[in-house]
Amino acid sequence: MIDMKDVWKTYPNGVSAINGIDITIGKGEFVYVVGPSGAGKSTFIKMMYREEKPTKGDISLDGTNLAKVKDRNVPLVRRKIGVVFQDFKLLPKLSVYENVAFALEVIEENPETIKQKVMRVLEIVKLKNKARFLPSELSGGEQQRVAIARAIVNNPNVLIADEPTGNLDPDTAWEIMDTLEEINNRGTTIVMATHNKEIVNTIKKRVIAIEGGRVVRDEIRGNYGYEI
Ligand code: ADP
Ligand code: ADP
């Protein structure tokens, strides 16, 4: 599914964020990415959705070498990858329905297909009854669930989440985990960068720890392993 071979990333300012990573993530896995601030977690996952390109090495996603994808072809690749962020990134003037439909309208699906797909994912994230609401009328957890619905509406093989519970209170964070596990159970691979020690230590999954741009630990059913 995702295969990194000797991946390095140096930013234009000279900071070397990733220093030789080899990793394979299989179909259907659920992986936490942990490590101290500045360790390279965001850079590591940004390369998985081709937000950043490695300076050296190869990243294969379902056989596509992301390191070689040209800027103009990024939208094509993104259809295979869903991404959610700590700050949701919803469009504030669009309803829940429209926020989710947007990704499909961009690729010119027909209106009936769009409606079916949007209502199907709103059902998965349990927000069918709030389809007409604006993001500002929802709780933080609901907004994150809209973002998750939008990320999966194209049926991606991989969902990448960068600190998806970072802005949420603990109860809401657990709700988001229920949603992510449900999506994972339906077959989507999930890669989630997180600082949430309780979640990592309770909902046991593979843990990849990054420090100084290198993988320092990779455990099936691992622990968070840091104090905060
Ligand atoms: P983490 O997500 O673990 O906090 P990052 O991947 O954000 O780590 O950052 C790793 C290193 O790369 C840090 O030293 C950070 O300052 C640097 N860095 C991150 N993004 C950029 C950028 N766009 N330009 C230059 N340096 C960056
Ligand atoms: P179902 O029949 O599956 O329950 P509905 O067609 O009744 O689905 O729609 C459920 C919600 O989605 C309603 O709040 C509806 O207003 C909203 N909705 C459906 N289609 C659209 C659309 N094209 N644009 C905006 N909202 C829509």
TrEMBL record:
Keyword set, alphabetical order: ATP-binding, Cell cycle, Cell division, Cell membrane, Membrane, Nucleotide-binding
Entry keyword annotation includes Cell membrane = yes
Key word Membrane present: yes
Where does the record place it?
Answer: Cell membrane
Q: Mention any Pfam family matching this sequence.
A: ABC_tran
Q: Name one GO molecular function term.
A: ATP binding
Say where the protein is mainly found.
membrane
| Cross-referenced InterPro entries | AAA+_ATPase, ABC_transporter-like_ATP-bd, ABC_transporter-like_CS, ABC_transpr_LolD-like, Cell_div_FtsE, P-loop_NTPase
Q: Which PANTHER family match?
A: CELL DIVISION ATP-BINDING PROTEIN FTSE, IMPORT ATP-BINDING PROTEIN
Q: What does this protein do?
A: Part of the ABC transporter FtsEX involved in cellular division.
Quaternary structure, per UniProt, is:
Homodimer. Forms a membrane-associated complex with FtsX.
Give the protein name, as stated in the record.
Answer: Cell division ATP-binding protein FtsE
